[in-house]
Amino acid sequence: MNILAKHTQIVKNTASKLGFDYCGIAEATFLEEDAPKLEEWLNNNYHGKMAYMANHFDKRLDPRKLVEGAKSVVSLMYNYYPQQKLPESAEDLKIAKYAYGEDYHFVIKDKLKVFLECLKEEIGEVNGRVFVDSAPVMERQWAQKSGLGWKGKNSLLLNKTSGSFFFLAELIIDLPLAYDNPITKDYCGTCTRCIDACPTDAILQDNVIDGSKCISYLTIELKDAIPEDFKGKMKNWVFGCDICQDVCPWNRFSKPHQEEAFLPHADLEKIAWEEMTKETFNKVFKRSALKRTKWEGFQRNISFVKN
Question: Which residues form the 4Fe-4S ferredoxin-type domain (predicted)?
Answer without folding.
Answer: 179-208
